[in-house]
Amino acid sequence: MIRPGMIPRHLVIGVGAMVLVVLLMGIYVWHMRGRASELPAAQTDTRPVTAPVAGPTEQITLYVAHDNPGILRPQSARIPLPSGRQQRAEELLRALVNVYLDSASPHPLPRGAEVRNVYLVPPDLAVIDTNSALADGHRSGILEEELTVASLVETLAANTPGITRIRILVDGKERDSLAGHADLSGFYDVAAVTKLIEQMQSGQQ
Fold first, then answer.
1. Contact 115, 95 (CB under 8 A)
2. Minimum mean pLDDT among 44-53, 57-66, 90-99, 142-151: which range?
3. Within the chain, where are the H helices?
């Protein structure tokens, strides 16, 4: 049988120190949990994280949808643009979508919405490939959907000369409609979309 006096003094001190460390760590963790519970919930940034774009900053025109009064308005912006024509087209539309993902957006799009790719097919066709988050979470309604489509089409065509027809895909696949109303089964004629936008604007004057 080991008597108290037989335990080495340095062992007693070591065990005591370990117990003290464990207690201090427990108090620290409890304190940090309490502070974390008092912090307000962080605002979620719904914009997709993309790699920085290499290229000179250029001025572009975004055709931004405004739910009230239901029109598109040109909005100037300066963004870095790569030299490749297809990559430039993609960055144009990503800049547009970022406007809609902002908390003060005049035409909100769902969380995680993004333009995945833009394919330019000679001589005059552009194919916009969006992700499923944009389509699946889009608000259902004739005006809301038409504004989104018209905004994408007009922004791309206005900044990319030579484009007269545009097709919209979702995750690389054909889709009948955006959210039940705007037809995505065919090609959009740029001239017809531009005329529609003019009619929308004249109706608000």
1. no
2. 44-53
3. 9-38, 85-101, 132-136, 142-159, 190-203
